[in-house]
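step: validate -> pass
step: tokenize input -> pass
step: predict -> running
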Amino acid sequence: MSVTYLSVELRRLVATRAEGIREFGSVDWESGEFARFFNPRLDRWPDHFKLVGNRIETLTIIAAVTARILGFNRPERILERQTLQEIGRYPNAVALRRMQA
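step: predict -> pass
step: emit ->
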């Protein structure tokens, strides 16, 4: 992680706090833009993510920063999803409805 990247993040956090905004996010590495995190109270999962096999693919910058920070596709998470898929427990019925809504 570069000093410039950290500097941009810190300036954004300070500016956000000063303005009283309660939105947290991160800088998207590809575009360099700040994006808020996915909020399940505001956002629909299928608008931002897509389950492809045992990986969660991102469709938006919001999804990209959320997936990166939360580690959606770290090797151990992919292995866990694969194992649960093999025994028919991922995604569960409720999650599947949300993914397709």
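step: describe -> DSSP finds five helices and four strands in the chain.
step: cleanup -> pass
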